[in-house]
Write a structure and sequence with these properties.
mainly beta; 1 helix; elongated; 12 strands; 206 residues; five-stranded antiparallel β-sheet
Length: 206
């Protein structure tokens, strides 16, 4: 489950078309079959969670980190927007994802598979307590909470989260699959950026 299968990119021909690696050693690349190989795997090797609560005088701090490591993702944005052949239809990708010499639309290959390990600060809360009068049991606590504050990853797509199903659903031919639980690890073009939220609050203990 989660195995990614396809051709290995080795360069471009003089006319700007793809050149893929000959896997079976017959000297000629043939689309599909024996000239395809394993490009990655959508299953993570391990996950972790780390939480801690600290207090100092009237301050308290709660943090929770979450990490997922060892999985790969197919970066659909890199594939579709990385070719000069589609510049008349789409905005192009930036940086190394765009290949100005590529003269044909995207064909899925090894350049579209990326390592997607990440470490994310999922939740953190900073609070401050104030005594109300001389009664130590009466407290006013103000706090600020942040979710999805930052993510550390080398993945260049929208979101490095593991994909255990493929939603598809953009209406384009290359995204015709819908809710396929057997197609793992595809970061589609309809993926939204994960929201970063902040909450301010007051707690009163009487």
């Amino acid at each position: 489950m989660g195995q990614m299968w396809g051709p290995v990119f080795v360069g471009l021909n003089e006319d700007g078309t793809y050149q893929f690696e000959d896997q079976n050693g017959n000297g000629v690349y043939t689309a599909g079959g024996e000239d395809n190989t394993v490009l990655g795997n959508a299953q993570p090797t391990f996950t972790l969670g780390f939480g801690n609560q600290l207090s100092w005088k009237r301050f308290d701090l709660n943090v929770f980190f979450r990490g997922v490591f060892g999985h790969d993702l197919i970066n659909a944005n890199r594939a579709v927007y990385g070719s000069a052949a589609t510049i008349d239809r789409y905005n192009v990708a930036v940086g190394g994802a765009f290949n100005s010499a590529l003269a044909e639309p995207a064909v899925f290959n090894s350049t579209h598979v990326e390592k997607a390990s990440f470490l994310r600060l999922d939740n953190t809360t900073l609070g401050y307590q104030v005594k109300l009068g001389n009664d130590t049991d009466r407290l006013l606590r103000v706090f600020v909470n942040a979710q999805n504050l930052f993510t550390i990853t080398s993945y260049t797509g929208v979101d490095p989260e593991v994909r255990y199903t493929d939603g598809g659903g953009t209406g384009n031919a290359e995204f015709a699959v819908s809710d396929n639980v057997l197609a793992w690890g595809i970061d589609r073009r309809n993926t939204y950026l994960p929201a970063r939220t902040f909450t301010f609050g007051v707690e009163l203990k009487l």
